[in-house]
Amino acid sequence: MKNHIVKVYPSKANLPKEEQLAWKLAKMVTDNVAISDEVEDMVINRIIDNASVAIASVNRTPVVNARAQALSHKRDDRGANVFGMPKDFKVHAEWAAWANCTAVRELDYHDTFLAADYSHPGDSIPAVIAVAQQMGKSGKDVLRGIVAAYEVHVNLVKAISLHKHKIDHVAHLCPAQAAGVCALLGLDTETTYQAIQQALHVSISTRQSRKGEISSWKAYVPGHGAKLAIEAVDRAMRGEKSPSPIYEGEDSVIAWVLDGPDAEYTIPLPEPGEEKRAILETYTKEHSAEYQSQALIDLAARMRKKIKDFSDIDNILIETSHHTHYVIGTGSNDPQKFDPHATRETLDHSIMYIFAVALEDGTWHHEKSYAPSRAQRPETVELWKKISTVEKDRWTKLYHDEDPDKKAFGGKIIITMKNGDKIEDELERANAHPAGARPFKRPNYIGKFDMLTENLITKDERNRFIDFAERLTQLSATEMMGLTVEMPFDSVKENKPNHKGIF
């Protein structure tokens, strides 16, 4: 890996494009190096992971509405699949990506990478697959596109904090999605450079979408990015240019949206000829909750065995990282994080709620744990309000450790009983983390798929999809139209275009 210094330059400097971050990203994306079996295996895992959470959420309101919009953009010739729909039903690629990204993100239950900023790198996968289906690309092409998208996304997240400036993380996602589509299509460096710049320029939005009462827009964000990215690539392919230099310019994103004209970032990127392995630094979720809560859910299941009566608890303190404390903890100062009537999205971003339920139940479920009746249970509300968080340097340092084998997102729990006794325990990494007690492997991904799709798809469809996913690099362009999961038609809500909106 080589570190690249990125900073703002005045317009009169006329910074050569070869020295611009967007060009360096494009050069890396278009460097068609060999992909190892280990990386290919993880790409397949994440395709299976995405499909599992997409099918589990297929009839949830945001997904139903996103799909309804997509179905109004049907194509009879070239097109792309929509999760849940028949494989021979095709829509425009950008609308398939819109619907499928929304389905993948709705439960917030897929892969993650945390560093200077937050990310769900798997959000690029539906965009790459949709364009591949419409453009007649093979499974090998899809592999190349997904690997490139992860490489761009992970390395931007390592170096540039968006949340510090209250900017939503789609500003890293959209350029990664554009990069993945460019790699899939085998576009040249100049075209890729223009697409990445334009994708960033059009994708800046605020973090209000993740503050206070969190709305369903959180589920739509990656689909919004995918549409913007696909359209940016299309324009670049037609020869259109983009605002440049988008990162380093005098009036650029860095200068006016992020750290300002005196900012300096260090971006790590693979050297020419070096394999792209960033996907191996990412991790999926065993539990359907914000990633910083994964280890604490595991810890709750362990600690509950030492408590006979939860009503005897006086208070619970969670010592954790800066991000966990200020984003999903009491450092956020969001009263909604203690509201029994809050949205699922808000509860997902309340470590106080999550730990209370996990401590009482000893488990976590993607639907039952968020049910209104569960959140409003009086004894749970009482326990929930006894929980607070605090930032500790140790956990913040582990969160930002550059060594993926040392990086950790856990915490220490101190439960103080009414009689003054204390129960303490800590866990650095979730059990399913690559460096955890029982890292997720292929059987775990398939097990998660089976758990989430049970009674939603037929056994034959389950077997067919798993077979297709595991044969990714052997899939022809024709077979790529089968890299989706079809549900019994009548079980899919809004399975035909409707006229509730404009489309």
UniProtKB/TrEMBL annotation:
Residues of the MmgE/PrpD C-terminal domain: 287-472
Pfam family, one: MmgE_PrpD_N
Listed transmembrane segments: none
Domain MmgE/PrpD N-terminal as annotated: residue spans: 20-265
Coiled coil stretches, renumbered: none
InterPro entries given in the database record: MmgE/PrpD_sf (IPR036148), MmgE/PrpD_sf_1 (IPR042183), MmgE/PrpD_sf_2 (IPR042188), MmgE_PrpD (IPR005656), MmgE_PrpD_C (IPR045337), MmgE_PrpD_N (IPR045336)
Alphabetized GO MF terms: lyase activity
SUPFAM superfamilies, sorted: 2-methylcitrate dehydratase PrpD
PANTHER family: 2-METHYLCITRATE DEHYDRATASE (PTHR16943:SF8), 2-METHYLCITRATE DEHYDRATASE-RELATED (PTHR16943)
Family: Belongs to the PrpD family.
Annotated protein name in UniProt: MmgE/PrpD family protein
